[in-house]
Amino acid sequence: QLSMAQPSAERVPSPEEQEWAGPEALCPGWMEEEAPDGEVPGDSGDPDGATHAYEQLQSALCQEGLPPTLDCSAEPRTGFGPLDMTVCILGSPTAFLPVLLEGGTRCPDAMVLCLSPTWVSRVPSETSTGAWSLLLSRGVSFKVGGHSALETFVPPRRANYVTGTFALGDPEGGWVGELARDLDCPTGGSVPLAHRLEDPLVTRWVLAARAKLPVPPTLAFVLGARGDLPAEPGVPGVRLVRLEDPQGQGSLVQEEVGAFLGGTAMEPYSQVGTGGTH
């Protein structure tokens, strides 16, 4: 039986500590420069989107029944060296929340969420010529029990692994891809990779041709030349038809669709899905 006087390994924050400190904790000095009419320049006082992303994180934590993020930014964390594990997640707080929570349980303080490009910097790598190291001066770290903390790091923490929101359609896609480019540590993706994986035709061709995995029977009509696809895919399950002028090739389309639906590959299926690619 544990003594009630024994200090807990996880300090329970007070209600005052749990209260979000506001944009000033996320973007110091965000209200220092005011326009002549008194309005804050930039995107509603949130030029890099950190405040909006932070609010998204708090909403996601609340929906999961977890405590809000504790603001510890006034007392910088020190003592992190190049051998300490730092897994950096760039961009959207909601897409990687399950990973952050599980990582916080298995390896407390190792998972660090970066919500803004102003929280990190790229410096020339000391170990790999032509590569860059990613240093975190601020971030949201995750701990046991779903607890999280907004922290500053002095000196900045060096990322050992980096992943994030690389999708082109995501608002964070631009700065995330730029920060993760040519790093000296492993990365969990890239903008070019996300671009390819968003195309279902390319994805199915890669799985069938390179990984030799079965894919759903696929009939694709492609306009003009597609440099990201071979002239003749020749892979099981994927039929590629190139159209030079779709307006004058209606009979070809009908013929290909009829042959596809009547083929043996479609016998196990009762429904057909349609979609477009780039």
Question: What brief labels describe this structure?
Answer:
about 280 residues; alpha/beta; 2 domains; seven-stranded mixed sheet; two-stranded parallel sheet; 8 helices; elongated
CA radius of gyration is 25 Å
**Oligomeric status:** single chain
What share of residues is helical?
Answer: 10-25%
- Indicate the overall shape: elongated
> Regions with pLDDT < 50 over 5+ consecutive residues?
1-25, 27-45
User: Which class do the helix and strand fractions yield?
Assistant: alpha/beta
C-alpha end-to-end distance: 63 Å
Whole-number mean pLDDT = 75
**Percent range for β-strand residues:** 15-25%
User: Main beta sheet: strand number and arrangement?
Assistant: 7 strands, mixed
The total count of helices amounts to 8
Count of beta strands:
9
The topology string of helices and strands comes to: HHHEEHEEEEEHHHEEH
Tell me the count of domains.
Answer: 2
Secondary-structure map:
Blueprint: H1 15-18, H2 23-26, H3 50-63, E1 70-71, E2 87-90, H4 97-106, E3 111-114, E4 120-124, E5 132-142, E6 148-158, E7 161-164, H5 173-179, H6 191-197, H7 200-209, E8 218-223, E9 238-243, H8 250-261
Parallel strand pairs: 1-6, 2-3, 2-7, 8-9
Antiparallel strand pairs: 3-5, 4-5, 5-6
Description:
GO terms for molecular function: ATP hydrolysis activity; carnosine synthase activity; homocarnosine synthase activity. Residues 1-51 are annotated as: Disordered. This is CRNS1 synthase. The protein is α/β, with parallel strands linked by helices. It folds into 2 domains: 50-189, no CATH class; 199-266, no CATH class. It contains 8 helices and 9 strands. The chain has helices at residues 15-18, 23-26, 50-63, 97-106, 173-179, 191-197, 200-209, 250-261, and strands spanning 70-71, 87-90, 111-114, 120-124, 132-142, 148-158, 161-164, 218-223, 238-243. Strands 1, 2, 3, 4, 5, 6 and 7 form a 7-stranded mixed β-sheet that branches. The N and C termini lie far apart (63 Å). The model is unreliable at 1-25 and 27-45 (pLDDT under 50).
